[in-house]
Amino acid sequence: MSEHPCECGNDDSSGCSGTTRRNLLKAAGATLGAGAFAAAIAPLTTWAKDISLDQFLQQHYREMDEDDLAFVLDRLERETKAKHGVDVDITAPKPIPGVQFGYALNLSICIGCRRCAEACHEENNHDRASHNSYIRVLEMDQGSFDMAKGNATYDHPVPQPGKFYMPVQCQHCENAPCVKVCPVEATWHEDDGIVVVDYDWCIGCRYCEAACPYHARRFNWQEPQIPPEDINPVQSYLSNRIRPQGVMEKCTFCLHKTRNGELPACLEACPTGARVFGNLLDPESEIRWVLANKRIYVLKEELGTRPRFFYFFDK
């Protein structure tokens, strides 16, 4: 449950003035009565076939207690089975106490093969037709860090002379502009530093997409289409469950894996060992060694977003 009984953050919920979907529905229900309320909102529940009445009335993830969450996870599993014909296990792993995740990438040995992007595509149950991924690999001219000049659509053999390759994904910024602009607080920082999205609370306004300087967010323009045999059944509410049409989504550092002691799928797929992931609070971790001993860069440092994703060279 949230530490505040009210969504706007006031300790006294009677003083709440926040206008949210849940507050509006509560007020309407109290005014109209149960029967009239259900009839009044019926047209709203049909605006997209992916949204059920239970989902429309659902609490924000951070407001749900264990019973609420168990009910929602069970509903999502049943809906996935009905829609896709596959049994899935949707969990909601919590942040690990004493852990702040960080990621580093060695640009000296990345070869631009895009296997990380392919692994992301498969692990996170992306729509197959769009070939969507949370990772873009930019082919860059040596000596430049200007993302605007990077080529994300190269189709020639790699690596090419005079080029280096820079995969870009969510930077999980400490000062994340995407979090600040969301009008319904559907995106936020978790205690382990991961920036997440409650897909059932997102209204699809795309403000976060516009605010992100790294082009790291994706919008589901249509209902994801995935062959049943390709669906990854190991899913999480805040990460790789099949997202509905009309919402924003993003990299979550594969929290369904990393919060259970595994590594992100993109790291596991990298053939050159260019990726390093770990706990920034652990002085013995590999990522702490990289930060202490390598020449570190962060993208668009001048914006003050303070990314948790770092780039480095061997020399």
Account of the protein in words:
This protein is α+β, with helices and mostly antiparallel strands and 315 residues long. The chain folds into 2 domains: 13-91, no CATH class; 95-315, Alpha-Beta Plaits (2-Layer Sandwich). 25% of the residues lie in helices and 16% in strands. It has 10 helices and 12 strands. It has helices at 21-32, 34-41, 53-57, 66-84, 115-123, 177-181, 207-211, 255-258, 265-269, 286-293; strands spanning 89-91, 101-106, 136-141, 163-168, 187-189, 195-197, 217-219, 234-236, 248-250, 275-279, 295-297, 309-313. The strands form 5 sheets. Strands 10-2-12-11 form a 4-stranded mixed sheet, covered by helices on one side. A hairpin with a 5-residue loop joins β5 (187-189) and β6. α1 (21-32) crosses α2. The chain is globular, with a radius of gyration of 21 Å. The N and C termini lie far apart (48 Å). The relative contact order is 0.18. Mean pLDDT is 88; it is low at 1-20, 24-28 and 40-49.
